[in-house]
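Sample log: Succinate dehydrogenase/Fumarate reductase transmembrane subunit.
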Amino acid sequence: MTAIAEPRAPRAAVRRRGANLEKWGWVYMRASGVLLVVLIFGHLFVNLMVGEGIHGIDFAFVAGKYATPFWQWWDVLMLWLALIHGANGMRTIVNDYVTHAGTRRVLVWALGLAAAFLIVLGTLVVFTFDPCIGFDAETASDTIISICG
């Protein structure tokens, strides 16, 4: 009878006291994945199927959506969930395949910093979006005129 080789393990699997972060990361991936499917398909439906469809998407369309808190929070929730979901998935891949502890630590920190930077930047863009900067009533569309008056 042949023995199956022991799988490669970069770290010893010692159970530590406190919260099981790997378990909660696993739970987050499942829950955020389900919620992201709903948010993304809702986003696609509103942007591509309602109204004029893809031909209606322009600056005025985005300005109209971001004039309401509902769509701001919808897009921010989608942004946060997607970035954290993606960074957590990449962290799992790094932990599985990078064997050198120092390199693994640097890559995990880089992933965390990149995700945090993009979350902050994206959130600022959504909540500080002002379609009226440089507003010119002569060349603006009807939607922008109704928003900026």
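Observation: The mean pLDDT is 86.
Observation: The chain has one domain: 21-148.
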